[in-house]
Amino acid sequence: MEIKEITNRDIDFAKWYTDICKKADLVDYSGVKGSMIIRPLGFAIWEQMERILDEKFKETGHENVQMPMFIPESLLKVEKDHVEGFAPEVAWVTEGGKEPLDERMCVRPTSEVLFCEHYKKIINSYRDLPKLYNQWCTIVRWEKTTRPFLRSREILWQEGHTMHSTEQEAREETLRIFNIYKEFQEEYLAMPVITGKKTEKEKFAGALETYTIEAMMYDGYALQNGTSHYFGQNFAKAFGIEFTNKENKLETPYQTSWGVSTRMIGGLIMTHSDNNGLVLPPKIAPWKVIIIPIGNVTEKLDELEEKLKQEKITFKTDRSDKSPGYRFAEAEVKGYPIRIELGERDLKEDKITLVRRDTLEKITLSFKEIIPKIKEIMEIMQKEMFNRAKRRRDEMIYEANTYEELKEIADNKSGFIKINWCENTECENKIKDDIGLKSRCLIDSEKVTGPCVVCGKKAKTRLYVGRQY
Amino acid sequence: MEIKEITNRDIDFAKWYTDICKKADLVDYSGVKGSMIIRPLGFAIWEQMERILDEKFKETGHENVQMPMFIPESLLKVEKDHVEGFAPEVAWVTEGGKEPLDERMCVRPTSEVLFCEHYKKIINSYRDLPKLYNQWCTIVRWEKTTRPFLRSREILWQEGHTMHSTEQEAREETLRIFNIYKEFQEEYLAMPVITGKKTEKEKFAGALETYTIEAMMYDGYALQNGTSHYFGQNFAKAFGIEFTNKENKLETPYQTSWGVSTRMIGGLIMTHSDNNGLVLPPKIAPWKVIIIPIGNVTEKLDELEEKLKQEKITFKTDRSDKSPGYRFAEAEVKGYPIRIELGERDLKEDKITLVRRDTLEKITLSFKEIIPKIKEIMEIMQKEMFNRAKRRRDEMIYEANTYEELKEIADNKSGFIKINWCENTECENKIKDDIGLKSRCLIDSEKVTGPCVVCGKKAKTRLYVGRQY
Questions:
Q1: Is B265 found in the same domain as B156?
Q2: Residue B413 to chain A, least CA–CA distance (Å)
Q3: Which of B63, B71, B114 has the CB atom closest to A40's CB atom?
Q4: Could you tell me the CA-to-CA distances from B355 to A216, B331, B415 in Å, in that order?
Q5: Are B146 and B153 in contact, with CB atoms under 8 Å apart?
Q6: CB burial class (10 A; 0-12, 13-18, 19+) of residue B105?
Q7: Interval A336-358 mean pLDDT
Q8: Does the pLDDT of residue A277 top 60, yes or no?
Q9: Residue B229: pLDDT above 80?
Q10: Domain containing residue A405: CATH number
Q11: Can you give the residue range of the structural domain that contains A442?
């Protein structure tokens, strides 16, 4: 048995990333091209994300449902912009039960049209509103090149679809969820995020407005890590959804949709992990502690496990017959926030060693000090991981006032660049086609400081641009 | 607004069933033929099932994973019996991203072959065993006729797939899960079940042995409500899965798989519900209590809600502007175990009315008695619902010693019939083709009492037969 080797992240970031995914046993490739297998550790991280977000959704009045996974071609076509956006990347089922289908169906790439068809049937009166539905499911988008968690043909996600009687309520909902996403990623994933509206060009197919969560990875690339869309009445009108208001008059409702996916696991990796493997913020780690018993320590091990259970601190114990060194390395690769080395010899002197995963700091203490110390480390580690990521991110945010400056920064640095922009799609396209930077989001909080960096005409807004995953 | 009408279950059981599904807002039909929409109440019941079972799986060492949803045709064909069993009922994806696929892929009807392909890669040494994997997912089987929860083209389920170094361990696993299913259905769903091995003819495609959970519905029909399969080395050999044992010799591992699905919701309905709507055992009901405020009762309502929260008793409050009578009826249709009527006038005399859903018994009591009473009712209700179902089931179990007896019972009664059987598939087929009864399961606990009821030759076993969903 040899310790698993991981590529240096400063030498080859892309290879480092896939090394972490594979060697921390998060995913495996399958014989099904473009689809990945999510292994127990990877899936346990997703379950943590799901549990925390689901609770937040329910606290804010949302209900889970399950819609069909297939969309008949005619249904996909009801909203024009939507079908144009998705038709090129769907998988088609053409045969079922040994017979060709009358109408082919795609596997859902997203479920707006399915929800709208259902809403048309169940929304009749103001009493039926709001409808605050969410579903956890798998969607399919036929990507040509795939990468674990970041771009896959099958994506595990949640998609919320809500209907409201007024525009204001729908706009509030769009932002409510947007804030839940932001807080979740900052508090639990220790990922500082930049948030704002997408440009017209980059917004979701069929939406009026798309709000995006943009995280910066270790290499300065952006990861779009969640979106919340305001649809206005676009889909509702296309589907003929109407309700009678309190005055018994017919009105058209207002709609939102929003989603995050297993992509967040990719973001988590590329924000925090290092050359020794996965590093997980304690609040999202499925198991906070790994215990590695060395020699005959049965009694103390039982006592420690009992204490951890009482304190509701999740843990695993590596009882395998592999060498201590191998087990230490494996615990590092898999990112347990705290490793406890429980050695027969050390215990005779009432000594236990704790190792903190993010800093690899070793702490030696007596048995009775262990629980308070674990709690303390978890709290500090969560905070410091966020602060470290934020410091790094902030250092990689640049500002360009001219096209030459923009090009120069893009040629020499990786990160987000703030620019002044006229809101014209041609200028946005030029930045993308010539420099390879895509719009991240509008910067509402800052005033325009000069003309559009591309055309030199009057700028209307500030904009983040950057390279992306 | 009119109260939703439900067909009488003694007049038209099939229509009664779909009425309950539709009018309790458990499901809706969709424009996608054969696929149903699971609405919030239906899905909340499934979430309860999922949460409880998932905890039991994890307590017994199982880990969740997520495999691809597609199976390339060549992979499906690796195990001969398996492909013969499933190929006729799969949906085929033939085109993705606007291009025809090199090899068509089916949407998984079950995932044995996907797990085996993965296991071949990750199982090398005795250290890698056992592998105790489970996944919660949607599968697709192209059924011609469908019924909500009972038979659908898309099925939400869990499928466990485990690998073991010895036959004994795999056999123990098969039965361990089988017992978890049985206990779950009896304890939480209040459904008495009959358990045993399937006959050779009825076992799962590719398995050596299938253990089944058979519940009897109100109309005497059987519902197969969960299965656990022992595969021996069938699949492992077909896939070439091998591991080195402690003596460094190559061995082939032993395999199990097991699953339950949203079908259990169908079973729950057909066991307990009545002409007024859904009836849910308190232990599985997502919300134990519904509060119906009448008049101005804000203060007491707040107090009651606070108390319920403290006691962790889940509840909903119907604050709508519908009439009290309408809200009562709706609460009955939706099966909340306990309805609390909080009336302005009653409260002036410190009176509150509780209504128990299964018996519709009304209880009037003072405000301070309410929490203990709710707890008491929930406990009694759970027990009595099980006992009622068991009494009815036991009354509908018959015994036939000759073919004529079997025919006569089948013609006049509905239920399960015990027979003596020679274990010959021809006799089993005759019972199915001539009388319409299918084998449920072998009765291990009873001794043979006479010759085979069909051929008159020596019987080898006792067998339950019955009509089925």
A1: yes
A2: 35
A3: B63
A4: 56, 10, 32
A5: yes
A6: buried
A7: 97
A8: yes
A9: yes
A10: 3.30.110.30
A11: 397-466
A32, A40, A90 member nearest B105 (Cβ): A32
How sure is the predictor about B79, in pLDDT bands with cuts at 50, 70 and 90? confident
C-alpha angle with apex B232: B226 to B233, nearest 5 degrees?
130
A245 lies in the same domain as A294: no
Task: For chain A, count helices (H), then strands (E).
Answer: 14, 23
CA distance B355 to chain A (A): 25
Select from A114, A138, A320 the Cβ nearest to the Cβ of B127: A320
Domain assignment of residue A462, yes or no: yes
A409, A401 in Cβ contact below 8 A?
Answer: no
Q: What is the pLDDT of residues B159-215, one digit of tens each?
A: 999 999 999 999 999 999 999 999 999 999 999 999 999 999 999 988 999 999 999
The token pair at A92 is 């088609």
Provide the ipTM.
0.95
B332 domain residue, yes or no: yes
Q: How many CA atoms lie within 13 A of B51 on its CB side?
A: 14
With 0.90 as the threshold, say if the pTM is over it. Answer: yes
Peptide bond into B253 cis (omega under 30): no
> Is residue A203 assigned to a domain?
yes
Distances (CA, A) of B44 to A211, B26, B264: 29, 9, 13
- Using only C-alpha atoms, chain A has a radius of gyration, in whole angstroms, of 25
Cβ-based neighbour number of residue A288 at 10 Å: 23
Q: What is the pLDDT of residues B420-449, one digit of tens each?
A: 999 999 999 999 999 999 999 999 999 999
Query: What is the number of structural domains in chain A?
Result: 3
Closest CA to B353 of B409, B264, B292, B394: B292
pLDDT on residue B1:
42
Is the pLDDT assigned to residue A3 strictly greater than 60? Answer: no
Diameter of chain A measured on Cα atoms:
81
Rounded to the nearest angstrom, the minimum Cα separation between A369 and chain B is: 29
Mutate: best of A30, A90, A323, partner B, most B CBs <10 A? A30
Instruction: Specify the length of chain B in residues.
Output: 469
Q: Residues A145, A213: one domain? A: yes
B363 touches chain A (CB under 8 A): no
Which of B99, B96, B266, B38 is closest to A32 using CA atoms?
A: B96
- Residue A75 sits at the chain B interface (C-beta within 8 Å): yes
Looking at CA atoms only, how far is residue B330 from chain A in angstroms?
14
Instruction: Give residue B187's Cα distance to chain centre.
Output: 13
Does B56 lie at the interface with A, CB-CB under 8 angstroms?
no
B413 pLDDT higher than 70: yes
> Which residues, 6+ apart, have CB-to-CB distance to B468 below 8 Å?
B221, B222, B223, B224, B438, B440
Subunit contact A37:B118, Cβ cutoff 8 A = yes
Q: For residue B59, what pLDDT band results from cuts at 50, 70 and 90?
A: very high
Backbone angles phi, psi at B155, to 5 degrees: -130, 125
> What residue of A is the nearest CA neighbor of B152?
A68
Could you count the other beta carbons within 10 Å of the beta carbon of residue A194?
Answer: 19
**What does the pLDDT read at residue A1?**
41
Interchain proximity A31–B72, CB inside 8 Å: yes
Shortest Cα–Cα distance, B141 to chain A (Å): 8
A290 neighbors A318 (Cβ within 8 angstroms) = yes
**Residue B436 and residue B34: Cα distance in Å, rounded?**
25
The answer to whether B205 touches B86, Cβ cutoff 8 Å, is yes
In DSSP notation, A121-160 reads: HH--BGGG--EEEEEEEEEE---SS-BTTTB-SEEEEEEE
Q: At what angle do helices B263-272 and B370-395 cross, to 10 degrees?
A: 90
CA distance A326 to A339: 13
Residue A120 in any domain: the answer is yes
The β-bridge partners of A156 are A138
